[in-house]
Structures are given as structure tokens and as C-alpha cells.
Design brief:
8-stranded mixed sheet, 756 residues, globular
Length: 756
């Protein structure tokens, strides 16, 4: 069932058209006109003329939501019958709300829904009814149409569903569907309204419109339908010098609009792909040229009005905004084959950033651009994270260095009571959640936290964590202390502020103010690790034994699950059981197995030396082989990573000298190790280059924008007396005012620091 679809207005409905069919092969100059007397030719030409462009198809698809039935709607058992009060007289059984009412299809109870965007009130009493009775399916009164459509929600699935027998189920409570009239907005309509109206302010503190910026490096990206997460990441990446040089040859300052990167031109001439849409290198060159050349960063003229697209954000009147690039081909190529990024749904900007780096590295390796060359800009984010594990029984230690691109930091949440002053981080102000408070009493406020506090909770002695551990030294199951430090520092440091809280088993974003250091400068010398120290005794390496050992899990996903409040052992078990498929899949597994008696018992698997490890699937081996690795390397990487393809690629990059043979020197010798990326030189000083902000109750909804500190050059039409922060809000590029930068900086979702 398609919940909502937009019927586009076609040109054929407004004008009369005359179609002429010409063959340009017969006449290269003017084309030879062909009479349309062949039915087959007529069908072909009509198909071309009436087809939607890929961009238009993306826009329509962006607002369609596919909803299916579930076991709870298909097997719904109605325990009571009767009639409910007529429209206007019905109200919530637990409060006096008469709108946003949900009818339990099991017992007929009426309860108000949760508060929605746009001021639709609700105290969540329908959800409370489910928690008490476990009656999962309800329907929203006011959305029932004579055709039998309505908003049906399953609290057990925590998702919108369809009820194939809705007419029969409603008749049990005296509701005649044919006589109903829709009086309230559906959930999809509310989601669309939220996406259209969620916009970051484009006015300064005094109410004046912010100044649009045009020129090289100031080209906007049009919203393709829930693509703001991608636009924010792309704008940030191409503001970095290494990305500019790699894909454009130089920075945008002083560049003529007619300039074309010679290497890009040569690649376009000799590209081996049949279509540029299938070549990531073509797409990156094309994107760099569009963003940095300035030839597309121009205001609309009076006769060329900005498109009145339903996806465009509302803007101040008479403002000459640019149209913005539409990187539909790039988005389709990067998201190809991915369960989430191939869709038109809103996504997490940090997850897309990591995914894009992985895609670029795979492409470069497959096409002979090894990361060892040091010329790939993706390596500017890579660094080594040192993990020190000390057994509390024998006091021996183990050091491990993991390669990371993003440092995810948990942000402690302390909700402030009404009237309570914010004394955290030396501030006297608190943030408010972007959406209405579900209690209806006001917006939630949280105590501010300094960035140094977040770093200390994760790195160094302040971030020490006690874990259950199976000691390889013979101590058995004991406690161990884990401590994280930087092994090396990246040239560009990306910090991910994890501001989540598990509400009804759903991760909800919290707008907790994070206070940055003075002048946005970060000093990280204190967090540098030094490896095995004099006097420390190293634990024996159990990686080559055939006995039971703790399998490795995705460290980033583990941190995300821990931030949601789950115990570390159960988080590891969930990630192992789901093959390290990600935090979201593991969270679903945790919810389903929360009552298992062994949920907090560590899962043990055979070590890598066990010959009974099953052979990896042939399609996974072929996928890695297509990237330039040998079959032996692919099979070993999959065995080492429990069959996870993405982790297998990372393993292969981290073990370039491993031939894949079990007795190869790289596999048997612990002395041959690839040095972690980055540098351990001191001082490690960083300055804020950009930050990505988000509005909305979840990172998978709402809206993303990017603020970037940009050098003001001749290529930009900008007032250099205002400041050097530029706001990229999809196709709108404006000079950010000092107040908005100061306020949004505290609530940012991602911070990008450049090393000085």
C-alpha cells in the first residue's frame, strides 16, 4: 500500500504539443524528419516524451511511504464491542483532549497520542494503555476516510501498519466507515509538514535576512528529498584543502569559472566505465567542479524565479537564492546496494560520512589507488585509537590499536527542573529540545557539558571502564580495566556527539549544550598513549590458539549501544549474534532477547586457529575479489571478521602484507604490523573548521545544515567585516551571524577540527 503519493502536474495538461520525429544519423545538420506511421515507433516516442526524469522520480518517491500489515493486525482479536461517543464528544479516557485520539482496536479504549510536530497536543495515554494491557493495534480517529483509509499504528512493532480488515474491526465499535469524514492530518502529512517547515533561521538577530553568498566554494546543493544529511557532509568535505586538491587541483580562491581540472578532463576522456553515472571518480570530479568553480553559484535573475518545489524550504521574500546543484547521480551511486542510503529516507549524517569514506577507499583500492600512496584525502581523518586492557587478578596488560575515522563521544544528560539554573560548564543557559515536550508542560532543558568533560569520560584515566574478561593468562573469568587513548592523531579530527536516550526502546536525540574550549581550540597532548611501558608485563597472545576466546565486535556500534543504557556484555553478545550488522540491528536483537537467562553471559567462539571455521560464502568472496584482492585474502578476511564484508575490507586495508595463507609471515609473526595512520607528534592542537547541526527529535528525521569556517577570498561576494562562518542550508548559502553560530555550535551533532 502506498500511504501517500504526489501526482505531478505534466506539461501536457497545460499546453498543446506537436511532436516531430527526426533521425540525426541520416542528416547530421538538421535531422531528417520521419513520418510516424509505425505503431512501434509511436510507442517508443510516447514513452520517451511521457517518462519522468530521474530527478522527478526521486522527488515523488521521497514522499511515498510503503506500509505493510504485521502479525498483530492480521491476527487481531477483539475482546469487547460497543459504541464510542460521536465526533466532537469523544475525549481521551485519561485526560480531556478531544484531538489526536487513538482507538484501541482490541478493547475500544480511547487514548491521546504523543505530542507531534506543529503543536498537535498529546500526553501519550494511548501508549500508556498499550504498556498496561499489551493491546498493540490502534487507529487514529479523524483520519478515517470513506474509502477505508486511516492511520493504523502497532505499538508492538513501533511502526505504522495497515489493517486489511479495518472496516470490520471498526464496525465492532459502531463506526460506519462509509459515513466518515477525514478531519485531522495523517502521520505522513505531519511528517511532510515537519520536513518542509523544519528550517534553520535565515535571519539575523535583528530580524534582517542573512546575506546570500555566491562564488567559488559557495555553491548550494538542492534537496533531492531527505538529502540534507548528504549535502552537509559533502559541503564539509569539499571545504578541506586535501579534497579540493585531489578532485579540483586547487582551492576555489581566485579560480576562473572557465577553469577545468586537467586531470579530471583526462579522466573523463579515458574513463573505462560505459556511463559516467557508474564511475565514482567521474562523479567526484563533477561534484568538485560544480561546488568549487563558482559557475553555478549565481542568483536567479528577475525573469528566472527560484523553483517552487515542494521540497524547497521557505525563505524570506525577494531574496535572490541560487538554484543549487542536484547530485542525484552521485547519491544513487554512493548508496547503491546499501539498505538505507539507497532509499529516499532521512539518514544519520555521521553514518553517511563513514559510509562515504568506505566507498571511496574501496573504489581507490579497486582502481589501483592504494592508500599507501598517501595522496587520498580520506586518510586525513584516520588515526589510531589505543586500547589498554589490564587484568585485575594478574595485573598483566594487553595493548591494541584500532584504526578509526570518527571519535564518538558520549554526552552525559542531566535534565534541569523547571526554574533550575544551568551551572554546568560555566554556562548559565540551557538548550531546549527541538520538538514539543510530550508532557505538554514545556520544553526540556539540559545542563551544559564542556567538550573536555566528554573527552575525559572516554579517554585517559577518567574514561577507565571495568569489564568482565576471560584472562588468557590463566586467571579465568575476572574483571579487567579498559582505558582508551590516542595512539596517533589525525590531520582532521571528526568528533561525533552522541546525545541519545532510549525512550520506549527508541533512541531519542537530546539537545544537550556542549561548550567548546576558548577560541574553538582543542589541545589533545594529554590524551596521547605510549604503548607498553617499562615494568608492565604483557598478556599472552591467544589469537593463534584453538581455545575459546572473545570475538571482536564493532567498537563504534558497541559504544552506541552502551550509550543507550545496555550492559556491555549484553551489547557484545548482540553484536556477535547479529554478525556485527550495526547498532540498530543489535538493538532489535537485545529487545527480543532481554529476558534470556544467558543475556549477560559472554559468548565464546573458537579462535582463528580453529580449522572448523566454515568456508565464507562464494558471493562475498567474489565481491572482495572484484575490489582487487585475491581469493585467499578475501576468504581469510571474512573468516577473521565473522563474515562481515565491511569489516573484512577494513581488515584487508590494515593487513596489506597478508597473502591470505594461514602460514604466511604476516599471519604468524606479531612483529610485522602496519603502522597506524596519523602522527604521534606533539603538540596536538586543533581548531574548529566546521560543525554539522541537526533539528528534530531523531537523527533519522528533521533537518541537517553545516556551518563552515571559510577563508574570505576574491572568489566570494561577501562582506568580510561580518565574519568567516558560512551557513550551508541545502541550496541556500549565507553568511552566518555571530549569534546563530554561537548558539548552534553548542548543539552540533558533528564537529570537524583541523590540526594547526
Amino acid at each position: 500500500m502506498t500511504k501517500l503519493a504526489i501526482n505531478e502536474e505534466r506539461e501536457e495538461d497545460k499546453y498543446e504539443h506537436t511532436t516531430v520525429f527526426k533521425c540525426w544519423k541520416c542528416d547530421l545538420q538538421d535531422g531528417r524528419e520521419v513520418v510516424l506511421d509505425d505503431a512501434h515507433t509511436k510507442r517508443l516516442t510516447d514513452g520517451v516524451m511521457l517518462s519522468l526524469s530521474s530527478a522527478r522520480q526521486s522527488e515523488v518517491k521521497a514522499w511515498e511511504e510503503e506500509i505493510t500489515a504485521c502479525e498483530h493486525t492480521l491476527c487481531l482479536e477483539q475482546l469487547q464491542s460497543g459504541t464510542i461517543p460521536q465526533e466532537g464528544l469523544a475525549h481521551c479516557a485519561s485526560c480531556e483532549l478531544t484531538s489526536n485520539l487513538w482507538l484501541c482496536l482490541t478493547c475500544g479504549a480511547l487514548g491521546c497520542g504523543r505530542a507531534q510536530f506543529g503543536g498537535t497536543g498529546g500526553n501519550g495515554h494511548a501508549l500508556a494503555h498499550f504498556n498496561t494491557t499489551q493491546h498493540p493495534v490502534c487507529v487514529k480517529l479523524g483520519t478515517i476516510t470513506p474509502e477505508g483509509g486511516a492511520d493504523v499504528y502497532c505499538y508492538a512493532c513501533n511502526d505504522a501498519r495497515i489493517d486489511p480488515e479495518l472496516v470490520t474491526h471498526l464496525s465492532t465499535f459502531g463506526i460506519n466507515v462509509a459515513a466518515q469524514k477525514k478531519t485531522e492530518k495523517s502521520m505522513t502529512e505531519l511528517q511532510i509538514e515537519q520536513n518542509l517547515l523544519f528550517d534553520f533561521s535565515l535571519t539575523a538577530e535583528d530580524g534582517s535576512a542573512l546575506q546570500p553568498i555566491f562564488g567559488g566554494g559557495a555553491t548550494g546543493l538542492s534537496n533531492l528529498g531527505n538529502s540534507c544529511y548528504m549535502a552537509s557532509v559533502i559541503q564539509t568535505l569539499f571545504s578541506l584543502p586535501l579534497f579540493q586538491i585531489r578532485y579540483y587541483g586547487k582551492g576555489p580562491s581566485g579560480t576562473s569559472p572557465a577553469y577545468v581540472f586537467p586531470i579530471a578532463a583526462a579522466h573523463w576522456e579515458n574513463c573505462t566505465q560505459a556511463l559516467p553515472a557508474d564511475c565514482l571518480e567521474c562523479q567526484m570530479y563533477k561534484l568538485a567542479d560544480g561546488l568549487l568553480s563558482g559557475r553555478y553559484s549565481k542568483p536567479h535573475s528577475d525573469h528566472e524565479q527560484a523553483p517552487s518545489d515542494a521540497l524547497a524550504h521557505p525563505t524570506p521574500e525577494h531574496t535572490p537564492w541560487q538554484a543549487g546543484l542536484k547530485p542525484a547521480g552521485f547519491k544513487a551511486l554512493v548508496g547503491k546496494g546499501h539498505a538505507e542510503f539507497a532509499t529516499m529516507r532521512q539518514q544519520d549524517a555521521e553514518e553517511f560520512f563513514s559510509h562515504l569514506l568506505t566507498v571511496l577507499r574501496r573504489f581507490n583500492h579497486q582502481n589501483g589507488r592504494g592508500v599507501s600512496e598517501g595522496s587520498e584525502p580520506t586518510e586525513t581523518f584516520a588515526f589510531g585509537l589505543e586500547q589498554r586492557l589490564q587484568c585485575q587478578s594478574c595485573h598483566r596488560v594487553r595493548y591494541r590499536v584500532d584504526t578509526m575515522d570518527v571519535l564518538s563521544l558520549g554526552v552525559p544528560a542531566h535534565e534541569l527542573a523547571d526554574g533550575e539554573a544551568d551551572t554546568g560548564a560555566g554556562e548559565h543557559e540551557a538548550a531546549t529540545v527541538g520538538g514539543p515536550d510530550e508532557s505538554g508542560t514545556g520544553k526540556k532543558r539540559y545542563r551544559s557539558v564542556s567538550l573536555e568533560q566528554c573527552l575525559n569520560l572516554y579517554l585517559g584515566p577518567g574514561g577507565q571502564e571495568v569489564l568482565e574478561y576471560q584472562c588468557e593468562g590463566g586467571c579465568g573469568k575476572v574483571n579487567a580495566v579498559r582505558q582508551m587513548q590516542f595512539a596517533t592523531f589525525p590531520d582532521v579530527l571528526v568528533l561525533h556527539a552522541k546525545k541519545f536516550q532510549l525512550v520506549n526502546w527508541v533512541p531519542t536525540k537530546l539537545d544537550i549544550p556542549v561548550i567548546l574550549p576558548e577560541n574553538d581550540e582543542l589541545h589533545l597532548d594529554y590524551y596521547l598513549g605510549h604503548g607498553l611501558q617499562s615494568g608492565e608485563v604483557e598478556l599472552p597472545d591467544g589469537s593463534n590458539t584453538s581455545g575459546p576466546s572473545q570475538p571482536e565486535v564493532d567498537a563504534e556500534a558497541l559504544s552506541q549501544l552502551e550509550a543507550m543504557g545496555f550492559q556491555t556484555v549484553s551489547c557484545r553478545n548482540a553484536l556477535i549474534a547479529t554478525g556485527n550488522a550495526g547498532a540498530e540491528v543489535a538493538m532489535e536483537w537485545l529487545i527480543m532477547h532481554m529476558d534470556d537467562p544467558d543475556i549477560n553471559t559472554p559468548i565464546q567462539t573458537a579462535g582463528s586457529g580453529n580449522n572448523n571455521v566454515p568456508e565464507p560464502p562464494a558471493e562475498q568472496v567474489a565481491m572482495l575479489a572484484d575490489m582487487g584482492f585475491t581469493n585467499a585474502q578475501a576468504k581469510k578476511a571474512l573468516r577473521e571478521t565473522d563474515g562481515n564484508v565491511e569489516r573484512a575490507v577494513e581488515w584487508l586495508f590494515n593487513h596489506p602484507d597478508d597473502t591470505g595463507e594461514d602460514n604466511s609471515p604476516a599471519a604468524s609473526s606479531s612483529e610485522i604490523k602496519k603502522a597506524p595512520p596519523g602522527s604521534s607528534r606533539l603538540p596536538a592542537r586543533y581548531r574548529l573548521k566546521a560543525f554539522i547541526s541537526h533539528k528534530g527529535p531523531s537523527v533519522h528525521s528533521g533537518h541537517y545544515v553545516a556551518h563552515i569556517r571559510m577563508p574570505i577570498g576574491d572568489s566570494m561576494d561577501v562582506d568580510d567585516t561580518v565574519g568567516d562562518w558560512v551557513l550551508f542550508n541545502d541550496e541556500k548559502v549565507v553568511q552566518a551571524d555571530e549569534t546563530s553560530v554561537r548558539d548552534l555550535k553548542k548543539l552540533a551533532y558533528m564537529y570537524i577540527f583541523e590540526r594547526e
